[in-house]
Every structure is written in C-alpha cells, then in structure tokens.
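Entry for 4'-deoxy-4'-aminopyridoxal-5'-phosphate complex. Fields follow.
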Amino acid sequence: MITPSEVEKIRAEFPMLSTKVHGHPLVYLDNAATTHKPRAVIERIRQFESEQYATVRRGSYTLGEEATEMFEGVRKKVQVFIGAKDHREIIFTSGATQSINLVANSFGRTFIGAGDEIVISHMEHHANLVPWQLLCLEKGCVLKVIPVSDSGELEMEAFKKLLGPKTKLVAVTHSSNVLGTINPVKEIARLAHAAGAKVLVDGAQSVPHTKIDVQDIDCDFLAFSSHKMYGPSGVGVLYGKYAVLETMPPYVAGGDMINSVTIERTTFAKPPGRFEAGTPPISQVIGLGAAVDFLTGIGMERIFEYEKSLLEYGTKVLSGIEGLRIIGTAPHKAAIISFWLEAAHPHDVITIIDREGIAVRGGHHCAQPVMARFGVPATTRASLSFYNKPEEIDLLAGALKKVIQVFG
Ligand code: PMP
C-alpha cells in the first residue's frame, strides 16, 4: 500500500499540485476528466524536443532512425503495460474517442449491416454511444442497451437475454466515469464471444487505475487516452487483436499507411501502420512512454489498493453529509464519487468551492443517458488519484457543508 509519506513524495513530482487557485493550494479532484503530469513526463518531452526530435518512420538520417526507435519502443512499453501478445496490436490514436471511432468506421462499416445488433450499456460515455448511433443510422443496425441497477451495476441477466445470433459487437465501459462501477468485462467478453460477437472495452477510466491484462479479459478491442493516465494530451491507444485488425480496412487515409500507391490503386500496410495515416503525435507518444514507466514504477496493484482506500474514506465522509446522495454505490468501484446535493445545483457547487481552490466537475460528464437513468440533470463528481490525500477529501467535505449553509 502507498504510505502517506510516499504520497507526499509522489505529489512533489507533480508541479501542478503545488500551484494555488484563488490563493488556496490546489485540491485537484477531477482526475476522471484529466490528470496532471509528473516531472518525468514533462522532462522527457522537453529532452526529446530539444535534443532528439525528428520525424519517425520516414527512413532517413540518424536522428530520424533514433526517433523511430524510441517511438516504436513506446509501442512495446504499452504492449507490456496492458498485457498484449504483440506490439503490432497497439495503434496510436488521438485518444479514446478516436480509438472507438476507428472501430466504428472500420470494423463497424465493414462487418455490421442492416438488422445486426450492437450491445452497449446505459452507463456509456457519449464517446462509446454516439459513434454506434451514427453507424446504426447509416447501416440500419440496431442498438441494444444493457440496463443499469439502482446501485449502478450492469444487469447481467438482462445482458444475457440481449445476446443473440444478430449481435455483432458488445461495446462497454470497463469503469464508468460517472458511477465509478467496475464492470465484469471478462465475463461480458466470454458471454459475447459465445454468441459470436466481438467485444470492445472502453478503458479510458480503468487503464490509469488498475492492472489491465487484455489477454485475460480476452477483449477484441481496448480504447484509452494518455491524458487521463498522467501522459500528454493528443494521444491515445486502440488495442486490437491482430487477427481482427488484419481483417479491417483503413479508416483515415494518407501517408504512411500504404504498401504501394499508383494513380490507379493503393495497397495498404499491415496493422498498426494501416491505421496510423499521417505524421503521428511524435512527442506525445514519447511522453506517454514516460507516463507508462512512471505508473509501472509505482505499481498498478498498489495504485488500485491506495485509491480504493481513498474511495472508502471519501464515501464514508461524504455520505455523512445530510442532503447529499451518492449516485453509484456498486460494491466494485473505481475511486469516483458522484453526488447530488439537495441544497444546490452542481454548477453552483463547483463555482463556490472553486473559490477555495477545490477542482471537481459538475455537469452531465458526457453521459446524459446515465443522468436520465438516475433522474438527475447533472452531478458533482470527485474523482481521485494516487496523488490525492484523505485531507483533501476533508477539505471538500468542509466546503460542501458551507455550500449547504449558504443555500440552505
Ligand atoms: N470513455 C470514458 C469512460 C471517458 O471517461 C472518456 C473521457 N471523459 C472518454 C471515453 C473519452 O476520452 P477522450 O476525451 O480522452 O477521447
């Protein structure tokens, strides 16, 4: 378990955590939206850009070859980090959103047709909902939705009934960005595969917080973003099983994704190149590699355990506040606490507590269907990281009590 003194050491690695907002030390509790960057990531990008920068995969001079080696080295780091079998299963994208859109536009438009079914859940982020709606509009396929229980868990019996010979894809989040629920993705993949469907896991909220093993989960695709895992923004990953990726046509076309081109005809590169048209986010990929090293250095199991203890503490403290209802009370949860305060709308809550330097998010969190499911227009959400401390939760609780006094 990460100890309090270790947390202090870790915090010292994050320059943003010693900034002030409205004269107060920043209390940053919006880690599900994006995370801050450790010095190791910032410094690695600085070093790369000032001493090693060149374009990659254009087979040229020494600097270009060295940069390519570093860039491809990150692909291998990510492979090991998520337990993939082969580094060619790692595709660099601009983020989880683009990763899912890639699957919808390439796999979806090729293998999902009129009358076919896609199963998602009622707790999906819009990034794992709207691309499937667009595909259904275009192809005439049908979206089926796994219901969510009052505690915020997927109703697995209902899920089993949704599966059938027409199911082509099951696309679910590993961990909900609103409820925190950690879904049984391994069991979901087993059931989906038995029905002959492929499985996409949205790992945007799980990859930064728990040990992931894509071979154990046995998903066909996993999508996630670097900026939520202490790396730079502008880069993300789509993992895909190689045998599946090989069957998929390109989504974005241009330089670097071809085998040969004549005016009449183009043949495409093998994955992952086929899906990485154009100059990639070179420095960002290098920064992502440093973030993976940083996380591995702390240890994903230890991160999960520590964040779990913070979640338990936060749940206890916040549920002790009268007029505060926690939304998402599944037993198996990531460190996200969404709540509704009787006294004030989330937008008022965040504006007031921001004056004390506390950063939490208020809104629908790009997950309007789950808001509708719980009968609220928005929630206030505290999302925790291994760099947060129990004292910060106390500060949040104190600030919320003041909000209640003012509005009550
Ligand atoms: N899925 C989930 C569960 C998320 O929380 C988010 C980000 N809020 C996304 C997908 C999209 O990630 P990005 O905006 O980095 O593409």
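NOTE: Residues 32, 95-97, 125, 127-128, 173, 177, 202, 204-205, 225, 366 surround 4'-deoxy-4'-aminopyridoxal-5'-phosphate (CB under 6 Å).
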